[in-house]
Every structure is written in C-alpha cells, then in structure tokens.
Amino acid sequence: MLNNLTDCEDGDGGANPGDGNPKESSPFINSTDTEKGKEYDGKNMALFEEEMDTSPMVSSLLSGLANYTNLPQGSREHEEAENNEGGKKKPVQAPRMGTFMGVYLPCLQNIFGVILFLRLTWVVGIAGIMESFCMVFICCSCTMLTAISMSAIATNGVVPAGGSYYMISRSLGPEFGGAVGLCFYLGTTFAGAMYILGTIEILLAYLFPAMAIFKAEDASGEAAAMLNNMRVYGTCVLTCMATVVFVGVKYVNKFALVFLGCVILSILAIYAGVIKSAFDPPNFPICLLGNRTLSRHGFDVCAKLAWEGNETVTTRLWGLFCSSRLLNATCDEYFTRNNVTEIQGIPGAASGLIKENLWSSYLTKGVIVERRGMPSVGLADGTPVDMDHPYVFSDMTSYFTLLVGIYFPSVTGIMAGSNRSGDLRDAQKSIPRSHGSSPKTEVGELEGIPFPESPFRER
Question: Which InterPro entries did the record assign (predicted)?
C-alpha cells in the first residue's frame, strides 16, 4: 500500500502540491478529459459526478435565470436562419435547460394567468369555499391524469423536439398525434382571445378607466359599452401581436425575464395582501339599501339625508329613488321601508367572512345582488323591480358546471413545459419531475452508469 502511494506521488503527469500549480484543470481527480472538465465548469462544488446536474452552484442558477428565454429551440433557429441568410450557418448548440428553467418556470407563467387574477375571486364568491375546493380538485385531477400520461410517454423512449404533438405522434401514432394537435391548436387560439379580453378588462376597469371610448349613461348600458370597448381595443392589441410575429418574436424574448419577474411579484403580492388585510383592511366602502347592493353610478354620498349648515337636505341618492329632491316627494316603496348602510367590501380574513362564504349562492340573470345577513324589509310577492334604479344586477345565470368551465383553462398551462422538449438537457427526467412524478429506473439501466472514482485508486 505504501508503494502504491509513493507511485501516485512520483508517477508521470502527477502534480505535486508544491509545484506552483494549485488549480485543478478538471473537477475530477486524476482525470485527463479536458472536455468533460469544461462541461462541468462552474459546478465543481458537488461531491460526486452524479450530483453535477442536480446540485449546481448558485452562480450557475443565477446565470441560467438571466438567460431565461420564452422561445423554444425551433423558433430561435428560425430567427437565426433569417438573420444569417446567405452567410455561414452557426452550429446548433446542444440543449442545456434543466427542470427548473425549461419546464417549471414556463408552466408557472402559463398557469398564473388572467383566469386566476380576474375570475378566481368571483368563482369563490359565487360557489363558496367548499364547492370551490371541489372544483379545483376536479380540474387538478384532470391535469394530474394528463401529467401522468405525459410522463409515461416521456419515459418510454427518446423525447424529440416539437413538444406534445411530436411526443404523442411518435409514441402512439399520427392518428392520436393529429387529434391532440388539432385540439391543442384550437385551445391555444381561444386562449389568445381570452388573454386579450382579460388585458383590456384590466386596463379599462382598474388601471385607466378614462381610456374608455364608449361610456354608458346609466348602469344598464355598462355591459354594452364595455363590449364595444373590447372590440376596438381588442382589434388594436391583436394587430400589434400580429406585427410582432411578423417582425420577429426575438425582441419580445428580450423581456422574458421581466415578464417572469412580474408573475412572481404578483404571486407574492397576493400573500402580502392577505396578511395585510387581516390586520389593516383597506378602505373599500360599498353602499347597501336594506340588503341590496347599490352601484355608485349617479351618487357620491351613501345616505338619504345630509346636513348642510343647520338644514337637512336630501342627497343625490334620494333623487334617484324619489320623484324629486323635496322631502315630501313620492319615493320607491323599498327605499322608504329600508335604511341605507355602508359596509367594507374587503373586511379582511379576521372578520369572520370565511365562515359566511362556506356555501354557494348561485344567481340567475337579472336578479339583484343581495348581502346575506343584512336586515331588510321585503315587498309583497310579485312587486316589480324598477331596472332604472342603481342596483347591482347579476349579468348571467351561474351554476356549478359553468364555473368549472370558466376555471378550467387556468390549469392547462402544464403543456408549456412539454412544448420545450427540444430545449431540455434530459427531457425524460425533467418532464416527469416537474409534473409531480419521477422516472422509473430499471435494474438493467444501472449497468452502464459509471461509479465515482476513488481518489486513492491504484495505477
């Protein structure tokens, strides 16, 4: 044993610690494979060779995050071919994206979309917390079955570039691949229209309401005005997107990291808002007449009467339900019998609102949105409701299967990861791992895996 150690120190090509060459040229001891050392450059903090891909350094992770791209490999090659037309072709680089950058982040960007930010709160408010959990469970079960099937196909053979269509057509045949590819194309087309309308709704309803071209004179015309605005602005946004596709999506890809940062910041803002509202709820008042919700369109003060100096005067709300602003005017019967109150629209998690919203409250089209638990003096059965009064009306009939159909597109973002199969370093491992399953390793597959070399091996 002592002779073997002496041979290791005095052998040809051996580097002594005192030779002024303290830096290893390779992360492996006694290795002469220079290309192998370059492959694992920046990742030599792992203990064994098998840990190089699973335990990269923080610098490697940050570098990959900085080079995050929205384009699959085929799109990038197409852009480079157009830019270098007639010139020397660049060699195609081998795919180097791992599970986190190549599958997890694209799925995250597609799942957290317009449905989650615009419609999930409305779905929970209509269906209640219990049925909402049931709805999410049904949708996630469908997604889980799809992910398991995708993982089975990915681990069944070599995964080519081309995404879900190539995976299915090369594994199950062109018949299945063509059917799934057609459905996927139609789903992507309708999803594009959905995202455009969601963008316009956020723009006009929350960010810049003054940008609306068509404005409603009363509450009954707000839906028609919003529809006309969506037609105009939707055409403009679709034209801009078509121009981007015509010019080249590589310019949009330069902002891929910015878009990813916006998604992550939005997720963190949701949790921060829940925590803040539990201790310090925001001021978002809602006006109620009895238990009926009133729209703020047409009045500013949530009261029947107001004090001006030493005189009692009627408010603008009085004028909307009565024949005149005089105190002896003839008013609506429901307005006369019930009081006007103002409550907070976002009371916070500590207000006990979760217990009140456990169960569903489905509505039919045209009924007034009422607040449960508020005192109200009703009218006789068959008394008509004046649609010109500033009530908040339900604009559609809601039921469980309808809400499932509205929410389901938000869980279809798992296909974004499989669409980058050509960019993944090991698609057979990355796709199943990101979708909640692990690839199965057979005993026969272990025969070709080299074990880590010992630093004290004999020559």
Answer: AA-permease/SLC12A_dom, KCL_cotranspt, SLC12A_fam
Q: What is the pTM of this model?
A: 0.69
Show the DSSP H helices in 203-337 as ranges. Answer: 222-247, 250-253, 256-279, 316-321, 333-337
Backbone angles phi, psi at 123, to 5 degrees: -60, -45
Rounded distance, CA 165 to CA 376, Å?
58
**Mean pLDDT throughout 323-348?**
90
Q: Are 394 and 363 in contact (CB under 8 A)?
A: yes
CA distance 305 to 311: 10
Cα torsion angle, 112, 117, 123, 129, sign: positive
- Contact by Cβ (8 Å): 437, 151: yes
CA distance 108 to 121: 19
Confidence tier at 310 by pLDDT (50, 70, 90): confident
pLDDT one-digit tens code per residue, 195-232 = 999 999 999 988 899 999 998 877 677 888 999 999 99
- Residue 141, classed as helix, strand or coil, is helix
Token pair for residue 332? Answer: 């609506």
Q: Within its chain, how far is the Cα of 186 from the centroid?
A: 20
Token pair in block for residue 14? 């051996």
Contacts of 89 (CB under 8 A, 6+ apart): 81
The whole-number average pLDDT for the span 58-68 is 60
